[in-house]
Amino acid sequence: MSTETILRAIPSLSADDLAVASRELRNGRLLVVPTDTVYGIGCDAANPSAVADVLAAKGRGRQMPPPVLVSCANALDDLCVDVPDYARALARAFWPGGLTLILRARPDLGWDLGETGGTIGVRMPDQPALLALLRTFGPMAVTSANLTGEPPATSITEAVSSFGSCVAAYLDAGPTESATASSIVDCSHGDPRMIRRGTISLEELTSAAGLSIVDVQGARP
């Protein structure tokens, strides 16, 4: 851990460190960032080469594209089309927080996040340092900071153990409060479907959506 760049993010990033993190993203480098769930590894969502580097670092193929983290709910209309009313209700109820919504991506967005089938996963995290970075830089493609098949990192030490120097900078906000990733609801194919159980329960999601959410068989915990 002695050679890695660690930026202190408790309670927030300094102006200098925020500039460093933003510069690394602009240069196509990878960051490990804290979220309100677990640590994530990510990059500029609009940089396809950097997204490919994220997937390679994690040992994941293009068939599992990373979600995009945003700084505000208005990003739904910036990044997506045909957003259902129930998806907006879920965002109002649980953003910022541990909910990822899969929606139809704008056809003219032009981002290459992997084999998305024309969709995009969007989440507004509830983490002050990360939100400041997102407001300053813009959307990031972020997936949990772990090698595929391993548990998500809940500390910078765990993330460094997995990724070492292939990450330009690690934003250290201390141990995460949870070891559980975000809940994922697919809103891109008509009725909502829960495709990953996470920090927000199916019952809470159903109540906020105002309609039944199908719990897809085999949804990952």
Automatic annotation (TrEMBL):
<protein>
    <recommendedName>
        <fullName>L-threonylcarbamoyladenylate synthase</fullName>
        <ecNumber>2.7.7.87</ecNumber>
    </recommendedName>
</protein>
<keyword id="KW-0963">Cytoplasm</keyword>
<dbReference type="GO" id="GO:0005737">
    <property type="term" value="C:cytoplasm"/>
</dbReference>
<dbReference type="InterPro" id="IPR017945">
    <property type="entry name" value="DHBP_synth_RibB-like_a/b_dom"/>
</dbReference>
<dbReference type="GO" id="GO:0008033">
    <property type="term" value="P:tRNA processing"/>
</dbReference>
<dbReference type="InterPro" id="IPR050156">
    <property type="entry name" value="TC-AMP_synthase_SUA5"/>
</dbReference>
<keyword id="KW-0808">Transferase</keyword>
<dbReference type="GO" id="GO:0006450">
    <property type="term" value="P:regulation of translational fidelity"/>
</dbReference>
<dbReference type="GO" id="GO:0061710">
    <property type="term" value="F:L-threonylcarbamoyladenylate synthase"/>
</dbReference>
<feature type="domain" description="YrdC-like">
    <location>
        <begin position="15"/>
        <end position="200"/>
    </location>
</feature>
<dbReference type="GO" id="GO:0005524">
    <property type="term" value="F:ATP binding"/>
</dbReference>
<keyword id="KW-0547">Nucleotide-binding</keyword>
<dbReference type="GO" id="GO:0003725">
    <property type="term" value="F:double-stranded RNA binding"/>
</dbReference>
<dbReference type="Pfam" id="PF01300">
    <property type="entry name" value="Sua5_yciO_yrdC"/>
</dbReference>
<dbReference type="GO" id="GO:0000049">
    <property type="term" value="F:tRNA binding"/>
</dbReference>
<keyword id="KW-0819">tRNA processing</keyword>
<comment type="similarity">
    <text>Belongs to the SUA5 family.</text>
</comment>
<keyword id="KW-0548">Nucleotidyltransferase</keyword>
<dbReference type="InterPro" id="IPR006070">
    <property type="entry name" value="Sua5-like_dom"/>
</dbReference>
<keyword id="KW-0067">ATP-binding</keyword>
